[in-house]
Amino acid sequence: MRYSTLCYVLFLILFDAFLVESGAAGGEKDGVYIVYMGAATEHGSSKNEHAQLLSSVLKRRKNALVHSYEHGISGFAARLSAAEAKSISKNPAVVSVFPDPVYQLHTTRSWDFLKYGTDVKIDLSPNSDSNLSSRGNDVIIGILDTGIWPESKSFSDKDMDPIPSSWNGTCVKAQYFNSSNCNRKIIGARYYYAPDDDDDRLVDTPRDINGHGTHVASTAAGIMVPGASYHGLASGTAKGGSPGSRIAVYKVCTPYGCAGSSILAAFSDAIKDGVDILSLSLGYRSRFSDLKEDPIAIGAFHAVENGITVVCSAGNEGPSEKTVSNDAPWILTVAATTIDRRFKSNVVFDKNKVIKGEAINFANIGKSPVHPLIYAKSAKKADADESDARNCYPDSMDGKKIKGKIVICDNDKDPNLYYTMSEVQNLGGIGAVLVDDTKRGDASEFDDFPMTSISSRDAVEIFAYLNSTKNPVATILPTTVVSQYKPAPTIAYFSSRGPSSISRNILKPDIAAPGSNILAAWTAYNGEATDKSKEIPKFKIMSGTSVACPHVSGLAAEIKSLYPSWSPSAVKSAIMTTASQINNMKGPLTAELGAIATAYDYGAGEISTNRASQPGLVYETTAIDYLNFLCYHGYNKSTIKVISKKVPAGFACPKESKADLISNINYPSIAVFNLTGKHSRSITRTLTNVAGGGNTTYSVTIEAPTGLTVIVSPTRLQFTKNGQRLSYHIIFTPTVSSLQKDMFGSITWTNKKFNVRAPFVAGGR
Ligand SMILES: *[C@@H]1O[C@H](CO)[C@@H](O)[C@H](O)[C@H]1NC(C)=O
Ligand SMILES: *[C@@H]1O[C@H](CO)[C@@H](O)[C@H](O)[C@H]1NC(C)=O
Ligand SMILES: *[C@@H]1O[C@H](CO)[C@@H](O)[C@H](O)[C@H]1NC(C)=O
Ligand SMILES: *[C@@H]1O[C@H](CO)[C@@H](O)[C@H](O)[C@H]1NC(C)=O
Ligand SMILES: *[C@@H]1O[C@H](CO)[C@@H](O)[C@H](O)[C@H]1NC(C)=O
Ligand SMILES: *[C@@H]1O[C@H](CO)[C@@H](O)[C@H](O)[C@H]1NC(C)=O
Ligand SMILES: *[C@@H]1O[C@H](CO)[C@@H](O)[C@H](O)[C@H]1NC(C)=O
Question: What's a Gene Ontology MF term here (predicted)?
Answer without folding.
Answer: serine-type endopeptidase activity
